[in-house]
Specification:
The protein has 265 residues and is an alpha/beta fold. It has two domains: 151 residues, 3-Layer(aba) Sandwich (Rossmann fold); 106 residues, Rossmann fold. The protein has a five-stranded mixed beta sheet, with helices on both faces. Strands 6-5-7-8 form a four-stranded parallel beta sheet, sandwiched between helices. Helix 5 links the parallel strand 5 and strand 6.
């Protein structure tokens, strides 16, 4: 009997309001046999609703890294960082052993370039563009990106007026496709998981939900480890810190790294 793939989707905020939403959406799209656990941080890490500011992101990163280490020790096949900034992705990979670590921006860019030659990224606020642009450049996708299209909404504002949010997202998508010739779109933030289907029906191009992209990319990578033995490299740039040194520092392990935890165990 084939062992199920175990994937943890981690919401790197100290607030569990959307954990069930993510679990329901990902369960609807998993392959048979994939087990999903959704987690978030303890409120004591900071009761953040979002991490759209660099200072917020910096505050939650340590807790997120402890979550990665805990998941790896539990034997998860893959860990998904649930933020389009790809918070702490390279740092997390140092601590993850044989476990895959995936994040939304890199996953969405990989998928977009497999579907089209040029993609645009719809974002909430102009503030996000520099940091997300740096991330896309680091991954080597800048020449494939037609641009970033801000809709003038912060993370929490997306839920205040759904009709207005939908109008702004659609307008941004049309600018990307009709004016800058984007052949696919990535949602840097969205109204709800699954909303991409409504947009792509109206715009006529693939619209990629980054949460789903990161989960499906992690699921695929986990299957490659199981089926082909392609374990993530931990040589050179991904070298892990010495275990004895981490133990002496005493900050990498937590008795309970998660505030909320739902799904398969």
């Amino acid at each position: 009997m084939i062992r199920p793939l175990k994937i943890m989707y981690h919401n790197p905020v100290g607030n569990d309001a959307y954990d069930q939403v993510f679990l329901d959406a990902l369960r609807a799209r998993r392959l048979p046999g994939t087990e999903i656990v959704v987690t978030s941080l303890h409120p004591e890490e900071g009761a953040f609703n979002h991490i759209e500011y660099r200072s917020y992101e910096a505050m939650v990163t340590a807790g997120m890294l402890r979550a990665v280490r805990s998941a790896a020790k539990e034997g998860f096949d893959a860990f998904v960082i649930g933020c389009f900034y790809d918070t702490g992705l390279l740092d997390a990979r140092e601590l993850s052993g044989d476990m895959v670590v995936m994040a939304p921006c890199v996953a969405a860019c990989e998928i977009a370039t497999s579907l089209a030659n040029r993609f645009g990224i719809i974002v909430g606020r102009r503030k996000w563009v520099e940091q997300m642009g740096e991330t896309v450049k680091r991954y080597g996708y800048s020449d494939k990106c037609s641009g970033f299209y801000a809709v003038g909404l912060g993370v929490t504002e997306f839920q205040q007026d759904h009709a207005e949010t939908e109008r702004r997202l659609l307008d941004a998508g049309r600018r990307a496709v009709d004016e800058d010739y984007a052949e696919a779109l990535i949602l840097g933030c969205t109204l709800e998981i699954g909303f991409h289907e409504k947009l792509q029906d109206k715009l006529g191009v693939p619209v990629i939900d980054p949460s789903i992209a990161a989960f499906k990319r992690a699921e695929y990578a986990g299957s490659l480890i199981r089926d082909c033995g392609w374990v993530p490299s931990r040589k050179w740039t991904s070298e892990a810190p010495p275990e004895a040194e981490m133990a002496a520092l005493g900050v990498f392990d937590a008795k309970n790294a998660f505030g909320n935890r739902i799904g398969n165990t």
